[in-house]
Amino acid sequence: MNTFEVFKLFPITIESAKGLELTDSEGKKYLDLYGGHGVISIGHCQEDYVKAITAQLNKIGFYSNSVHIPLQEELAVKLQKLSGYSDYKLFLVNSGAEANENALKLASFYTNRSKVISFHGAFFGRTSLAVAVTDNPAIQAPINKTDKVLWATLNDIESVKKVIDNDVAAVIVEGIQGVGGVQIASDEFLKQLRELCTQNGTMLIIDEIQCGYGRSGKFFSHQYSGVKADIITMAKGIANGFPVGAVMIDPNIPAKFGMLGTTFGGNHLGCAAAIATADVMAKYNYVDNAAKMGAYLMGKLRGHKAIKDLRGRGLMVGIETVADAAEIRKRLLFDEHIFTGFSGGVNTIRLIPPLCITEKEIDRFVEAFDKVTK
Ligand SMILES: Cc1ncc(COP(=O)(O)O)c(C=O)c1O
Questions:
Q1: Is there a contact between 232 and 238 (Cβ–Cβ < 8 Å)?
Q2: Is 99's C-beta closer than 6 angstroms to any atom of ligand 1?
Q3: pLDDT for 277-310, tens place per residue?
Q4: Is residue 235 in contact with ligand 1, taking CB distance under 6 Å?
Q5: What is the pTM of this model?
Q6: Between 20 and 30 A from 216 (CA), which of 76, 240, 349, 355?
Q7: At 288, phi and psi to the nearest 5?
């Protein structure tokens, strides 16, 4: 049997990795400024992380949510400390799309409303509700199309006011649009959105799946604005590559037995991976490192003649290039052996590296970028 070919692949097979270094099947080394799509937060094969998962696997890897799993509570406490969201509740799932799916469903249950407002350029995943609020008709099947989703423009509160009504359960917004090309939801806009949602009894869901977990230089990117969301979704960096997603929920939203559920979410091994990731994040202060290294990187790139627009916060950086970004990205990979991300719609190279990146690794990228844009 062959695999179902939905991914356009680079002809590269990665066999091992450490920190930000990837090694392919021919022994070639690459610098990873893509983090496997923003997933690797504390570095590949980080020692404490490998040890913790191995130890957990030797005890128990999985049991279902029909029994008490204290690791879930341990993880909740760690996330509370890291995020500063002290009294929220945690629901664990397996991916970003599943986190958003549950967040939207929860908002609808709680408000007893059926519509949602999303934004042009947004990406929330590929499952049914998640893809319905994603601004890309090409990845929506006929079964996903719905008139329950209303569209507004990021950073334009008037466009939200135009569509909000008393059947809108939630507004869902990425703290920083990732796939959309590193477009920041401004602090002012998030404040206005918070106010508007509160006035209308609408839940504010902030997707921190790509921009969260320390990447922006704060634990959640929306924390620059000082607003609090009703529901926050996380995935990617939360367990450094182990598939874990999470929904953080305002304590005023009551849980009811059976309203949400999952077989794999919150399993022992996933929790151990997420706990180890949280411990390493705290031990090495990687949120601060993201802020510092992000500023260092932006400082090096600002004013570069090959760059049309430079956007970002911390270690989520979008480089909109003058020349074709796809071609530059290809040369970075094949000539300079550096993995980067890409947002085609806005001709942007996206850097979402592990948060343990050093100045030396940034220097290597900047040198390579100079070379391929000469
Ligand atoms: C902002 C955002 N939300 C949701 C998702 C979907 O996550 P997953 O692929 O884990 O379902 C992604 C994936 O890239 C994302 O960037």
A1: no
A2: no
A3: 999 999 999 999 999 999 999 999 999 999 999 9
A4: yes
A5: 0.98
A6: 76
A7: -65, -40
